[in-house]
Write a structure and sequence with these properties.
Blueprint: H1 6-10, E1 21-28, H2 32-43, E2 52-55, H3 97-112, E3 121-129, E4 138-146, E5 149-160, E6 180-183, E7 197-201, H4 205-216, E8 220-224, E9 231-232, H5 238-253, H6 261-265, E10 267-268, H7 271-278, E11 288-292, E12 295-298, E13 303-305, E14 308-311, E15 349-351, H8 360-389
Parallel strand pairs: 1-2, 1-5, 5-15, 6-14, 7-8, 7-14, 9-10
Antiparallel strand pairs: 3-4, 4-5, 11-12, 12-13
The structure holds flavin-adenine dinucleotide.
Length: 390
Amino acid sequence: MGDRVAGSMDGMTDAAGAAAIDRRVVVVGAGQAGLSAAHHLQRQGLRAGTDFEVLDANPTPGGAWSHRWDALTFDLVNGVHDLPGSSLPPADPQEPARDVITRYYGDYEDEMGLHVSRPWRVASIEAFDGPAAWGDSQCFDLTAHGPSGVRRYRAGAVISGTGTWDRPYVPHYPGRFAGRQLHTRDFTAPEDFTGQRVLVVGGGISAVQFVMLLDAAGAEPIWSTRRPPRWRDEPFDAAWGRTVEESVAARTRAGLRPLSVVATTGLPSGPRYRAAVASGLLQSRGPIDRLLTAGVRFVDGSSEPLDAIIWATGFRASLGHLRPLRIREPGGGVMMADDDVSVIKAPGLFLVGYGRSASTLGATRAGRRAARAAIAATRAATEDAVSATG
Ligand SMILES: Cc1cc2nc3c(=O)[nH]c(=O)nc-3n(C[C@H](O)[C@H](O)[C@H](O)COP(=O)(O)OP(=O)(O)OC[C@H]3O[C@@H](n4cnc5c(N)ncnc54)[C@H](O)[C@@H]3O)c2cc1C
């Protein structure tokens, strides 16, 4: 792969003495967003593993999909958009979506020759004011942890597509429940709960699917949502998709935290779900008032004994590695430019799969915009370098 090491080019080493690997662009994360960005960098003439590097924390391809549970079969997902320059091959509807997507991303990485480095988790990214191989303007120092220790990278631009899977969100309620509690990300199989009374908390599609799966597996699910479920009968078509994306973009351009997907989209209605609503299975008991040692009390004053609680309460953007760059606004959001990938407070840093691009379709499109912007942001530096050596 021919790692180019800054120390070997200009004698620079970082404070810890380890030579930094120099890349024009580093892509953090190899989910839909990071792979799309990598593909477009390559299409614009940058070489994988030389001009740009993709670092991914997972041991296998697949992004967050590689962690999803067996019962999330391919027919249950809303639809996964093609990666750029390829088509998702037809798949068995009963196959776990995890296996379908992991295979698809893995084949894509191989066919495109993206040379993803894994498992390498970027722990922190700091601003660095040249000189560096990519010019004297602001660069980034990245510290990554992996199987052979610590690696340091120095990059002219960073495209961060780290998703949300690593930041499960669980709301706080008073009281303490002594039984089993887990978040969506720790769910493995509905059969784990057969014969148990299980509270499923959350108004999103994952919660709805858990209620249905638990019921089919002989558990007794009880559903709690903060607000009445928002079923949507209208088609999830392109025009409506654009409206949703625009409303999310309006928030992130103002530096506000993006709303959860379900708060923006509502729940897809359909014959299966309508029947479950009519039968009473998919009837929310409303918001939680407090947790009890062996159950829960709802705001309406009723209570239920429980064996387990599944918190299907969503995720937050996984941005901890960017903390040194101080890009968060007081409410936790990141102020985005009108292209929805450039971070206002950190020129040269691009977020993909964040805000309006937090879907496979949005992530694919954002990857293209970010790749072009990253190349533009580092072009002046490469031209300077060429004229200096020429
Ligand atoms: C249960 C569920 C079902 C969904 N179903 C659909 C659907 O049907 N259709 C749809 O369009 N969207 C769906 N989504 C949303 C969808 O998962 C995302 O929009 C899209 O796949 C996310 O892609 P991504 O590249 O942004 O993130 P991810 O797929 O999460 O990829 C991020 C990658 O970054 C890596 N990473 C994270 N932190 C670091 C770090 N510090 N250093 C290095 N690497 C790091 C991770 O290991 C991971 O490989 C679903 C989400 C959930 C939770």
